[in-house]
Specification:
The chain is of the alpha/beta class. The chain folds into two domains: about 5-45 and about 60-200 and about 325-395, Periplasmic binding protein-like II (D-Maltodextrin-Binding Protein, domain 2), CATH 3.40.190.10; about 200-320 and about 400-415, D-Maltodextrin-Binding Protein, domain 2, CATH 3.40.190. The chain is built from 15 helices and ten strands. It has helices at about 5-20, 105-115, 130-140, 150-160, 220, 235-245, 255-270, 280-290, 300-310, 335-345, 350-360, 365-370, 375-380, 390, 405-415; strands at about 95-100, 120-125, 145, 195-205, 230-235, 275-280, 295-300, 310-315, 320-330, 395. Strand 1 (about 95-100), helix 2 (about 105-115) and strand 2 form a beta-alpha-beta unit. Helix 6 (about 235-245) crosses helix 7, helix 7 packs parallel to helix 15 and helix 8 (about 280-290) runs parallel beside helix 9. The chain is globular, with a radius of gyration of 21 Å. It starts with 6 loop residues before the first helix and ends with a helix.
């Protein structure tokens, strides 16, 4: 669900993905047809990380409202196949340890990797970036070879030298990743992390219980009586406070103490209507079993819920919502680096990456999977999944890496709200 970002790059990616269903011209979204970003035409040199195009320095926070027009490309364009990796199995370790968001790697694909390469893959999961980060700050790498930090956390870990630079000699399938996502502000040379999934933070509600349409943050921050006591919010200071900041017309990246104070007061007033503050998967469970009627969640969890319960609807609020990118990274101190790179290359294969994205439901950075028709059409055509970023423009915002003083303001506000 999740920074210093180049919103332009993300916008271009969303447009690519939305334009790739088979058709003579790019298929339209419900309101307009976005144009696609140019697909890669050849695999990069083995060790070369893509060069940024006018990428700002990592410390320069981008303006979240800058939405450029995408580069026009024929809808039938397909990336050229990357050079296959010749794996030296003698260099592979017996086990690979991954620390990731839940449900990010399809079980059958992991088992296929294990069978082919003789490597046992152990996956531990976390539901907040801060949970993962704390383990690495507490005493160094606790034994992981791959992590999946979100944008702002990737920025923080790169800044603190907690991730290793990628060796692209062992990851030729990097050619399958949308080049628009390769040069984001927090990694302008594409050296440290690889974009994997992206999406939005919104909320889902049960249309069998709530007959009217919910469309804004006001609907859950100042809920009507029928919804009061039936709301689940993310137990995440940035995401929860961001909803209130945006409701008031402020940026989620504000460093203004007065604005953060106003947001705090809104969440305190809302608290009596909130049944639970939990992580996105836990909120999803509450919504599925009917314990709540509305839940703040991330895109992937929303898709999983709707597959199980068709009466649920995912909303990207029309005010302003978070757009995020989750990245694959090799943490500093990883003991099984070569094995990690082989696994990353495997997951970036067009077929494997497409099948994995279909299972997860979250929008994929794998442009080859999109162009080759591997991503399910029902996902590509769902405007709440592959959002029309060009249309939403200023209504999507990236969470930026905060300075220490601003982090303290958010932490203090969250403490005073009293979420347990």
């Amino acid at each position: 669900m999740k920074l210093i970002h180049n919103l332009s790059a993300i916008c271009a990616t969303a447009l690519v993905l939305a334009a790739c269903a088979p058709a003579a011209t790019p298929p339209p979204k419900p309101t307009e047809a976005p144009k696609a970003t140019a697909a890669p035409t050849q695999a990069p040199a083995p060790t070369a990380a893509p060069k940024p195009t006018d990428a700002p320095k990592p410390t320069d926070a981008p303006k979240p409202t800058d939405v450029p027009k995408p580069t026009e490309v024929p809808a039938t364009a397909t990336p050229s196949a990357p050079k296959p990796l010749v794996v030296d199995k003698a260099k592979l370790t017996k086990q690979l340890n991954i620390y990731s968001w839940s449900n990010y790697f399809k079980d059958s694909l992991v088992k296929a990797f294990e069978k082919e390469y003789g490597v046992k893959v152990k996956i531990d999961t976390y539901e907040q970036n801060e949970e993962m980060y704390a383990k690495f700050k507490a005493g160094g790498n606790p034994g992981y070879d791959i992590i999946v930090p979100s944008d702002y956390m990737a920025a923080k870990m790169i800044k603190e030298a907690l991730v290793e630079k990628m060796n692209y000699e062992n990851i030729p399938n990097i050619a399958n990743v949308d080049p628009a996502l390769r040069t984001l502000n927090y990694d302008p040379k594409g050296e440290n992390v690889i974009p994997f999934f992206w999406g939005t933070t919104g909320y889902a509600y049960d249309t069998s219980k709530i007959k009217r349409e919910l469309t804004t943050w006001k609907d859950i921050l100042e809920p009507e009586k029928d919804v009061q006591g039936r709301i689940a919010m993310l137990a995440d200071p940035r995401e929860a406070l961001s909803t209130a900041l945006r409701f008031k017309g402020f940026s989620s990246n504000t460093n203004d103490a007065k604005q953060i104070e106003e947001a705090k007061k809104i969440l305190i007033a809302q608290k009596k209507s909130v049944k639970a503050y939990q992580d996105s998967p836990e909120n999803a469970k509450l919504l599925l079993n009917g314990q709540v009627w509305v839940a703040q969640v991330y895109t992937g969890d929303a898709i999983q819920m709707m597959r199980e319960k068709p009466t649920l609807k995912y909303v990207v609020p029309s005010d302003v919502s978070t757009v995020w990118v989750d990245n694959i990274a090799i943490p500093k101190g990883a003991k099984n680096r070569y094995t990690a790179e082989v696994f990353i290359n495997y997951m970036l294969d067009a077929k494997v990456g497409g099948e994995n994205a279909n299972e997860t439901g979250a929008p994929s950075s794998n442009i080859a999977a999109v162009k080759n028709g591997i991503i399910d059409k029902d996902l590509l055509s769902n405007p709440a999944v592959y959002v029309d970023v060009a249309k939403m423009g200023k209504k999507l915002e990236l969470l930026e890496l905060q300075d220490a003083k601003t982090e303290e303001l958010f932490d203090k506000a969250w403490t005073e709200i009293g979420v347990k």
